[in-house]
Amino acid sequence: MYKVFLYSLVFSILAFIVWGSFFEIEIKIAISLIMLTFLPAISKRFYSWDATIRKIKAALYASLFLTGFALLLSIGSIIKGQHIDFASLWFTLFLFLIFLLGSVVYGVPVSSFSDLATARVTRYRFALAFIVHLGFGLISYLFLGPLMYFALIVAVVFFLFDEFLRKQTSKHRETKMAT
């Protein structure tokens, strides 16, 4: 009984903080939906330990990949003969943190929802999961505006890394079952 009271208290405080803030309504709705995925009744169906670890790895790999790409662009300007711009290097670090935060806070619940929605689909699961990831990337326009294009790129890269890790995990399980 105390768990129900504790969860109710924590979510009431978080809801008050979110809805009492000066955020725009789109951000309030997005944060509230993400908060709901952590309710115990929902999280049992939504998150499994192995899948969550895989998705966090995918978020980290996607963030590192995109940050590495941005870093290569910065290094490319240095190679062309321009001076070293430490502001662009700091901005690259900032991009990594933003990519990682967005991937973990928004991408992991969306990817878990995608897994739940495509659990019984066998033939077109990859395409359907891609559409779900892309759709939620497009929905990010509500609270990111024109920066939604970055969210779409992150969503696609996150999806590709998650699918790659899913294949690796299933191959590992098949190998383990065969022995």
UniProtKB/TrEMBL annotation:
Q: Which domain of life is it from?
A: Bacteria
Keywords attached to this entry: Membrane, Transmembrane, Transmembrane helix
The transmembrane segments are 5-23, 29-47, 59-79, 91-112, 149-165
Q: What is this protein called?
A: Uncharacterized protein
Organism expressing this protein natively: Planococcus plakortidis
